[in-house]
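Field reference: sequence -> structure
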Amino acid sequence: YTARRSFGEYKVVGRSVTIAKPRAELFAFWRDFRNLPRFMANLERIEPSGGEPGHATWHIKAANGKTYAVDTRIAREVDGELIAWRSTEDSDIDTEGRVTFEDAPGERGTRVSLIIAYKPKGGILGDTVAKLMRRSPELQGRHDLKRFKMLMETGEIATSARTRADHQHQTEEAR
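Structure field:
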């Protein structure tokens, strides 16, 4: 499931995926924000801030090659069900998001839904560049949830990307 829309100056994207793991396990993994860079491609790192629970700085890689610091605070949390966060006024990017966890029908695991609202850096032009560079939050959100599913179900993230070294090795073997 994917949803897209605008709300004023904000772009809103949403995505859901079913993961064959218990809700409590998925919630606990996500709630430790230091885990997020393991499956979120545009997220360089997350640093807890100010000793205050739920306050952290997210370092996000943008399409222009820059990394932006996004100071966030948890806006709402329901144990095992919901984590909502919002950037503060001091942030380089104006964004908010929420992830929900609910039991999937038929005891198939947990349905994880992610909604992100953001003001594109650089307005419409910046949003277009991000899409062209395949770094738009819309595209990344879909891929991030797929990687989260792989990581939680198998313990690793499969990739089809070949490195130059892989290609050279295969060429040498074929000779």
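Note: The CA atoms of residues 34 and 131 lie 26 Å apart.
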